[in-house]
Specification:
The structure holds two protein chains of two kinds. By secondary structure, chain A is mainly α. Chain A is 70% helix and 0% strand. Classes of the chains: A mainly alpha, B alpha+beta.
Chain lengths: 382, 135
């Protein structure tokens, strides 16, 4: 049985139930139950019309639940109005559900959880395991999120930008549990791209594909980080890179540049270099200039300083770093790198050690600690 | 979202307005204190921010390796310098500010005469997975 097919139908089924009069929270619960039943029943008895099967089962689950809650009047109203058969999955339903689950009234964590459940069709347990919290906590987070958006009508226009931020979070800050959140984020972004033509949706999809392509090369078997310059480029997934570049080119052709397209362009330039030494750093700096113009984000300026250091030398990189707040995450790591490039090994070692102390994740901390140790050994030998 | 450890230290805080060891509180004051802690945890479960919480016995044993073939050493650091950690709570929240807010509330648990205990709570971020997009 194709788990992804079942889950990809979930948003449309919710849409049908809502159009028949169910409120979103109850519809979503009913569809979860129908998905669960599909997983059990389909392997032995696959339906000819999976979508129709899910709609029928979910609708009955919904009626059972309303009956259980003794909402008799409401149920009778609904049943009196016999639903006509549904022609098939509706892309607009799917799109509306993305907007609802990323509604600006939700906190990022709630929006992520609700999106993975209602749009992604994952169970609460899978989401809880993916984010390393108890299932009861995740269940509360999801039901609170549903209450928060209870008054939002499903046919209201939404903001694509909020949806993209949620999908980016799922992709970029995933833990490594049973559910592959990066792959799930790509699936959901692909599905969104097929529901709406929007250059930034394509830009984000391209960005994800281009980064996902490097996944196998990004860590050693023991989990240690491998910096971009040291990655074995033969292990990059050329099929994903080709797809990412194609999606990006389609987006850029619309001539409505946004931050995800610019980030994807930088990732594409890295992917395009046969060796680290052949990287087109001058073009990368130009894309960072675009990103600074689009976002004015200090983290972007920090990454730009690294690119400037590669394009125009360490002194230029340090000059680009000079105006930035030293308390920015990874500022010390960037400063250490540029000082080493500039030949100041003692200054670099000290900064790497500082950076390791303030790293926000263990893999980066270990990497920075090794950099400091490497330089300190060189200084002792020197 | 980020996870934080709230570590409850018993020592180092300002002297409470009514300074008395727990054994000299009234039974009602003890009940109120415990109720506050469990209400706090229940509330965080309800907001989807609770991960874990445990109380610890006040006395523990320090253990260290003492060389091949020898039993481990257990006469740990001097008792008077030993920190007394009463327990912990792990939360999963949207921001550092939210973590500080919750730690502040936990530190306000009532003690003698219902006055806030004002124990020190240490807030320590968990190290995360590295982000995928780095350049």
């Amino acid at each position: 049985m194709d788990d992804l097919l079942v889950r990809s139908l979930a948003p449309s089924v919710i849409g049908v139930l809502v159009r028949r009069g169910a409120d979103f929270a109850a519809a979503e619960d009913a569809v979860q139950e129908a998905l669960f039943q599909a997983v059990r029943v389909w392997p032995a008895d696959p339906p000819r019309d999976p979508f129709g099967w899910l709609v029928t089962v979910a609708w009955h689950k919904f009626l059972d639940a309303t009956r259980a809650e003794e909402s008799r009047r409401r149920r009778e109203d609904l049943i009196a109005d016999q639903p006509s058969p549904e022609p098939g999955p509706d892309r607009d339903d799917t799109l509306q559900l993305y907007f609802l689950c990323a509604h600006p009234s939700l906190t990022p964590a709630s929006a992520v959880a609700l999106t993975l459940r209602a749009v992604g069709g994952l169970t609460t347990r899978q989401i809880a395991e993916a984010y390393l919290v108890p299932e009861a906590t995740m269940a509360q987070r999801i039901s609170r999120a549903k209450r928060t958006v209870a008054g939002v009508r499903l046919d209201q226009p939404g903001d694509v930008a909020t949806v993209l931020r949620v999908l980016y979070l799922v992709f970029n800050e995933g833990y490594s549990g049973d559910v592959d959140l990066a792959a799930e984020a790509i699936r959901l972004t692909r599905q969104l791209a097929s529901s709406i033509a929007h250059p930034e949706v394509s830009g984000l999809l391209a960005l994800m594909l281009l980064h996902h392509a490097r996944r196998a090369a990004r860590t050693r078997p023991d989990g240690a980080l491998v910096p971009l310059a040291e990655q074995d480029r033969h292990r990059w997934d050329t099929r994903l890179i080709a797809e990412g570049v194609e999606v990006l080119q389609g987006a850029l052709a619309a001539d409505r540049l946004g931050e995800f397209q610019a980030q994807a362009a930088i990732a594409a330039l890295h992917a395009d270099a046969p060796t680290a030494a052949q990287t087109d750093w001058v073009q990368i700096v130009e894309w960072y200039d675009e990103l600074v113009r689009l976002t004015d984000n200090p983290v972007v300026r920090l990454n730009r300083a690294v690119a400037v250091g590669q394009a125009d030398g360490a002194r230029a990189g340090l000059a680009a770093l000079a105006g930035l707040d030293p308390s920015l995450p990874r500022h010390q790591a960037v400063a250490a790198y540029l000082h080493e490039q500039d030949g100041d090994l003692a200054g670099a070692a000290r900064r790497y050690a500082d950076a390791a102390r303030t790293a926000s994740n263990a893999a980066e901390r270990d990497h920075l600690t090794r950099q400091a140790a490497r330089l300190n050994a060189a200084l002792r030998a020197g | 979202m980020a996870k934080y450890l709230l570590l409850k230290h018993y020592r180092g805080g300002p002297t409470p307005l009514y300074d008395a060891p727990m054994t000299e509180w009234t039974e009602q004051e003890i009940t109120d204190h415990i109720q506050y802690m469990s209400d706090f945890a229940a509330r965080l479960q309800g907001t989807g921010e609770y991960v874990d919480g445990q109380a610890l016995a006040p006395e523990g044993t320090f253990v260290r390796y003492d060389g091949e073939g020898r039993p481990p050493v257990t006469d740990g650091p001097f008792a008077e310098t030993k920190d007394l950690i009463a327990g912990w709570m792990v939360i999963d929240v949207d921001s550092y500010d939210r973590a500080l807010e919750l730690a502040g509330e936990l530190s306000a648990a009532p003690g003698a005469r219902g006055e806030p205990l004002r124990e020190w709570l240490e807030v320590r971020p968990f190290l995360t997975e590295p982000p995928t997009v780095r350049e």
